[in-house]
Amino acid sequence: MVGARPVERRDAGLTAAVSAIIRWEALEPSGANAGPKRKIPPMDAAPIEAAAQLLVAARTARRPGERLPPSCRPADADAGLAIQRRVGEMLGLAIGGWKYSVPTPERKSAAAAIFAPTIVGVAPCPILPIAGNARVEPEIAFVLARDLPARATPYDEAEVRAAIGESRLVLELMGPRYAEPAVITFPELLADSIANQGLFVGPVLSNSVGLALDSFAIVIDGADGTLVTREGKHPDGHPLRPLYWLANFLAGGGYGEGVWLKAGQIVTTGSYCGVVDVPLDTALVVRYGDLGTLNVQFSAA
Predict the structure, then answer these.
(1) Which of 58, 60, 200, 244 makes a 20 to 30 Å CA pair with 27?
(2) What is the mean pLDDT of each run of 10 residues along the chain (301 residues)?
(3) What angle do CA 135, 197, 189 make, to 5 degrees?
(4) What are phi and psi of 51, to 5 degrees?
(5) Quick check: pTM over 0.90?
(6) Which domains can be identified in the chain, with CATH numbers?
């Protein structure tokens, strides 16, 4: 079967001109709504360390663990982000990408780093199964062609667009480190990188000038026929809205000092149809409306 090629970290073909393939339709926020300009406040290091150790242990064991105990359970988004960042430091893995959705009063700072070794572009793609299946989310992601470093003033829409090198069809790989994810709060989910297990990167969206990216059908076919059919709709209305928020969230210190969007990183921006369970060891074709297809096969990690 045919798999997508891996993301090139510094592809000379990633130029700002490619960003013109994506239609930008009144994307917000701007001005005062351009994203939080803040830094993660100092917190008690002991509960952050304890929570991070438990989440790292679950990752290392390759199986979900219990809910974080009350003594180190994050109470708000800032604490969840602090734990998430500490997990990354403990693992010592480079950030290869991000997942993000436009924040809401209930889900503030909905950001999660995606570690570079978990970003895959060829099949078979390893994944930790859930109930014997691969759990994924069909999404559209953007590869950055240039850095968007920290600065005092927000990036405007044109600057964010100019930083895009490619848009790609992707599948986010889902896998929480909690044995009972249904009972956890959003700060706990945030501490666990919003259940991200990795990213499978599919083909580049080419010849897409003027294409609408707000909604389209998601169809997944297997060897014996169609497995999934969903009417896909982007949760934030357009996949570029989360990218715009994320650029300013990171540049404003929202994830901590020295962290911003960098050339070669890939940003995925929300599922068009929620989570989908698909079989392992099966050649799959994922159709994103008329935009294109992604070929993949999953194997148990």
Answers:
(1) 200
(2) 37 33 40 46 82 98 96 96 97 97 90 98 97 98 97 95 94 97 96 98 78 93 96 95 96 95 98 98 97 97 94
(3) 95
(4) -65, -45
(5) no
(6) 16-300 (3.90.850.10)
